[in-house]
Amino acid sequence: MDDALYFAEQHLAVREMVREFARDAVAPVAARFDADSIFPWENVKRMGELGLLGVPWPEEMGGAGFDLLSYMITIEELAKVDASTGLTVSAHTTLGTSPIVRFGTQAQRERYVPLLASGKVLGGFGLTEPDAGSDAAGMRTRAVKKDGRYVLNGTKRFITHGSVGEIFVVTAVTDATQGTKGISSFIMTKPTSDLEKVRELGIGHEPSLPAMKGFRAGKKEDKLGWRASDTAELILEDVEVPEENLLGKEGHGFSNFMRALDSGRIGIAALSLGIAEGAFEQAANYAATRRQFGKPIAEFQGISFQLSDMATEIEAGKHLMFHAAWLAQHGKPFSKEAAMAKLFCSELAMRATTKAVQVFGGYGYTKDYPVERMMRDAKICEIGEGTSEIQRLVIARHILKEIGK
Ligand SMILES: Cc1cc2nc3c(=O)[nH]c(=O)nc-3n(C[C@H](O)[C@H](O)[C@H](O)COP(=O)(O)OP(=O)(O)OC[C@H]3O[C@@H](n4cnc5c(N)ncnc54)[C@H](O)[C@@H]3O)c2cc1C
Fold this sequence. Notes:
Layout: H1 9-36, H2 41-50, H3 68-81, H4 83-103, H5 106-117, E1 123-126, E2 142-146, E3 149-160, E4 167-173, E5 183-189, H6 195-201, E6 215-220, E7 231-242, E8 246-247, H7 253-289, E9 291-292, E10 295-296, H8 301-329, H9 335-360, H10 371-379, H11 388-404
Parallel strand pairs: 1-4
Antiparallel strand pairs: 2-3, 3-7, 4-5, 5-8, 6-7, 9-10
Helix pairs in contact: 1-3, 3-4, 3-7, 4-5, 4-7, 7-8, 7-9, 7-10, 8-9, 9-10, 9-11
The site of flavin-adenine dinucleotide has 24 residues, from helix 4, strand 1, strand 3 and helix 11.
């Protein structure tokens, strides 16, 4: 892709800075953190210092003051070497922070966004439940209004930063007779589960945030990929949430979440693209140096065609992802394009990483090289923030609406 098509000087500078950080700080620990499922707190601290935990938010909110394209570049570059780190940035920014930036009151923004955007604490988004995944509207978490407070009960499943995070936007049913219009969202706080660790680092915990009684992390997931990313249940047992923590209007929680998910999909597309690019780079270098039958394996058509297919699809994925981001950045409708970018790039990541393992032969199947990790990391991109099937449903709805017009 011609850089000039979407990028200005500032984007190239962000890309260089993130590339350098990914190479020097993320790549050296990626394999070990994946193997032992270690959350990268030291790198979270460094990312906070570099502004990478608040890329698209204005400086007056504690953010880096860059734009959406810079944010997508950040995720893409991190995911080239480690998808878990890319996801930490993406889940924290799009899921944990953007609903407060977009739908919060001035007081809520002032209270929470600087803490999140600076990386002082991590945020997350609690939508999914044990019995409500793709059908998120089927959630059972309830919020009952009582004496100027809401009392919340329920369980959220698979929440990124569920145990390490402190600020969460959580959905609950406030009026069961209204369907999706009876769902609201709340800002909820609890201390991180890694208090001891983060005290040493001086980030990850903010003592002034109330520890809401009855709100805690539950089971931590042991996953196939994204193993250095934290995924846990959130348990809500008679949690009293002050009225001022209602985010947006009562009954607007579902539609607000759907809007946040639209841009979240571009982020997962960027993450997927990064994984595919990382795998391609590994495979191309390996194919150029690995010799069999007296020559580099890249000289065999069976291998070079795989590289050609990977490179072609990556180019297509870049255009889809950056086009969706460009539309979003310029205030144009982008829901269909975001779903297309997410669908294509996540499936591309799976195809590209599988091909990369094949190019590496037996070595690709070992932990001596990163391609097997990349293949495991790619799979969840077809599931999280709306499965491939759900993306196809979203795209089909847009197409049918256009035909109807
Ligand atoms: C590592 C990880 C991190 C996550 N992070 C978060 C987070 O931070 N916050 C959060 O709220 N959630 C999070 N999730 C949850 C994620 O968004 C859900 O797992 C996802 O939306 C799918 O829901 P489900 O797992 O319940 O699958 P289900 O909805 O039960 O789907 C099972 C299968 O049925 C298919 N299916 C369902 N409905 C249809 C349909 N109408 N048509 C065709 N096929 C259909 C699905 O595509 C899928 O193949 C995370 C999940 C994981 C694994």
